Amino acid sequence: MLRKLFGFLGKDLAMDLGTANTLLFTRADGIVLNEPSVVAIETERNSVLAVGREAKEYLGRTPQRIRAIRPMKDGVIADFEVTRQMIEFFIRKVIKGFNIVKPGIVICVPTGITQVEKRAVIESATQAGARDVRLVEEPMAAAIGANLPIHEPLGSMVVDIGGGTTEVAVISLSAIAYAESVRMAGDAMNHAIQRYFQEEFQLLIGENMSERIKMSIGSAFPLPEQLLMEVSGKDMLTGTPKVVRVSDGHIREALREPVRVILTAIRRALEKTPPELAGDIARNGLLLAGGGSLLKGLDALVARETRLKVIIDEDPLTTVVRGTGRTLDDRKFFSRVYIN
């Protein structure tokens, strides 16, 4: 009875605790927060200076006394205490009266997560103030968010390309029939661009700059019109500021390896899929979700390599948190998708 009362008073949350961004969703208001998973800390006092969007601006620009930390790595917690502080900050930002009534939270996690990593997610959310924590796997959440028929005896394939991991899964009857999780996604693409500039132009660029390049002119497949961009950084030989002009072709070459790994994971999942489910996927195609799916031409490349119809969700950045949020509407109906 008390549990129902607290559930009525509290504002239950769905959380996409991502390597790149954290999103929060409530039943009443939908997506109420979408901020970078970054925390800026003053090292002398070990106190939090900024969280989220403000803290991301600190990356690569901090003096020695300040550290800008990304506490999530490859989809899992890399720094427990900083993650706890980040979760608490975000919850307080969206829930008024947080000290009086604690929310229940559903959090999505990668499919390849270990028991230790699961426990870290649950404990960080509990210590941040959640009264109850449930976990759902990211590809399952993406399938729910995209309104795929997960409860039916039909094979649905989901490729969720986040910041830290790419999740490839085949889903049927509210369960994952096969899953492949590779630690190659948006962050790896950013790092590949940074390495390319070092090797080809002897130019050091920051993480924020590499992300802007990826979003502006990055592509996985030749584009109908050439895209150009001026990139500023630090000359590795002289140590002075330097500007170079690059095209989408340069960045496509830089992203060749991350894209190859993602394609290999998709092919491997298709090879391991049972024949009946493979037939369903051949008829219905596969779903691309996550921020990485917005890489220009990726859908065309996947379609060419797999000979499948490729569908990008209408808002791939929020597919996972929307699906996680839908499970709040009827926890009993979606009880089979929770993994704890």
UniProtKB/TrEMBL annotation:
Its main location: cytoplasm. It is found in: Cytoplasm. Keywords: ATP-binding, Cell shape, Cytoplasm, Nucleotide-binding. ATP binds at residues 19-21, 163-165, 211-214, 291-294. GO terms for molecular function: ATP binding. NCBIfam families: mreB, PRK13927.1. This is Cell shape-determining protein MreB. InterPro entries: ATPase_NBD, MreB, MreB_MamK-like. Forms polymers. Belongs to the FtsA/MreB family. The keyword ATP-binding applies. GO terms for biological process: cell morphogenesis; regulation of cell shape. The keyword ATP-binding applies. Forms membrane-associated dynamic filaments that are essential for cell shape determination. Acts by regulating cell wall synthesis and cell elongation, and thus cell shape. A feedback loop between cell geometry and MreB localization may maintain elongated cell shape by targeting cell wall growth to regions of negative cell wall curvature. SUPFAM superfamilies: Actin-like ATPase domain. One of its GO terms (cellular component) is cytoplasm.
